[in-house]
Design goal:
By secondary structure, the protein is an alpha+beta fold. The protein has two domains: 68 residues, no CATH class; 77 residues, no CATH class. Helix content is 45%, strand content 19%. Strands 2-1-3 form a three-stranded antiparallel β-sheet, with no helix packed on it. A two-stranded antiparallel ribbon has the order 4-5. The protein has a two-stranded antiparallel ribbon with strand order 6-7. Helix 3 crosses helix 7. The longest helix has 13 residues.
Length: 154
């Protein structure tokens, strides 16, 4: 059985995974006794973050899950439209003019009701997601609109 030491500085900077215990033991994150190799052990490490940004050790799946977790379930209408304008440079009136082009009168009316009357927008709303698709707004950009909107202080 081999002992691994996993060390990070208080700043989050990676020091090492094995060796002599540093003089400042407050920097020590953990000691793990294992028969795993260092490569096997490092594959199990949680991604390291700095100011909310992943800096090392993350798989694409972990990054995607981390980013999805930051997307709020809903935001207020005011915050939503402010973020849409800031990120996409388009207004609510422009979006409504595009909705007016929908040939199905029922669908058009339901979406216009949502746009005009919603107090908040839910990220999972199928009409909102379809409207974004119709306007060629990628889902990642819609996520960013919700993240940005949730950070406004009004």
């Amino acid at each position: 059985m081999e002992t691994f030491f996993i060390f990070l500085k208080s700043t989050g900077e990676f020091i090492g995974t094995r060796g002599i215990v540093p003089e400042d033991e407050s920097d020590e994150i953990g000691i793990l006794e294992t028969s795993e190799t260092l490569a096997q052990l490092s594959a199990c490490l949680v991604p390291k973050l700095s100011d909310g940004q992943i800096i090392e050790g993350a798989t694409p799946e972990q990054i995607e899950a981390y980013n999805k977790a930051k997307v709020p379930a809903s935001v207020s209408s005011l915050r939503f439209w402010r973020a849409v304008f800031e990120i996409l440079g388009i207004t609510k009136d422009f979006v409504k003019s595009q909705v007016e082009l929908i040939p199905d009168p029922t669908k058009k009316t339901l979406i216009l009701i949502m746009l005009n009357e919603a107090q908040e927008f839910d990220r999972a709303n199928s009409d909102l997601n379809q409207m974004a698709t119709d306007l060629q707004i990628p889902q990642e950009e819609l996520d960013q609109i919700f993240i940005t909107a949730s950070n406004y202080i009004l």
